[in-house]
Known about the structure:
- The protein is of the alpha/beta class.
- Helices cover 43% and strands 13% of the residues.
- It has 13 helices and 11 strands.
- Strands 3, 4, 5, 6, 7, 8, 9, 10 and 11 form a 9-stranded parallel sheet that branches. Strands 1-2 form a two-stranded antiparallel ribbon.
- The protein is globular, with a radius of gyration of 20 Å.
- It is an enzyme of class 1 (oxidoreductase).
Amino acid sequence: MSPTLESIACRPLAAPFYIGPLLIDPPILQAPMAGFTNFAFRQIVREYGGAGLLATEMVNARGFVWLDEQEAEHPDRLWGVAEEPRPLAVQIWDNEPATLAKVGARLAGEYAVSVVDINFGCPVRQVTQKAHSGSYLLKHPERMGDIIEQVVAACAPTPVTAKIRLGCTRESINACEIAQVVEGAGAAALTVHGRTAADMFRGSADWDGIAEIKSHLHKIPLIGNGDLDSAQKVVDAFQRYGVDGVMIARASLSKPWLFAQAAAAIRGEPIPPDPTLAEEKQLMLHHYELVCERFGDERGTMLMRKFACCYAQGRHGAREFRKHVGTVVTPQEFNQVVESFFPVG
Length: 345
């Protein structure tokens, strides 16, 4: 039986760890999530605290190079990266070692990011089948090793990490083999999502599968990812599965305060309460202001629809709120829908 939060009060459960020279304290990471983990979201997470390393959305390396060649503004997914507090990771994806190395070098040099992470886990068809990147590369360990070696050389001394899934399908799980390739190629840490690419986000993450990888790594830390939606589950991940760190993903979109709660739990401290609905409403409006400051009122309002739906998730009246907020196009409409339909109980 796993220890409960009450039984471990005042007893630290997990130690900080290093990614290369970078101390990750607390050992809780915010996952890169396409379309969500932009500067505004990262600011919200920072205000609550509890994340030892934050990450951007994943950046298309080939697109970055094209924008560079056109002397255009760099991708929106790098919004805020140059100025915001560290530590900060930027995740990149592609299948060409030279392209990834070129972009990694720019991120490490010009942007001075803390970590360059390579995505080998995205299961989305546009990335896998069309671009032969993300989790598609799990079928080609040698190619992965070549990519990592070149990016590590280009980014030094900035550490390079890799994020993978357990395999492409349940019948072709090869994460232990991949882990050895990742470590041998010079990566500074490995993050594993406990599903296969074919699983997408269905079913439950296989944490036993994640734990099995630990014995195949000898020098670098293992970070587990998947289904961490409560402080108790973070505690379980450290206590039962022996990971060095955890990465919180989708659950944080509706609960950005989860990092702070999890950090308190692993320190053996009292868990901060969830915000009240009134506080959550104000948080959402603050998030909206940050988005509109960057993208303007019209585009900012359109982008905020999906975030607003996340904030209402699991609340009584959430369906009605989603129905109305999904059509707003102006700040006036957004604020009216929030006042009229945001859950209050």
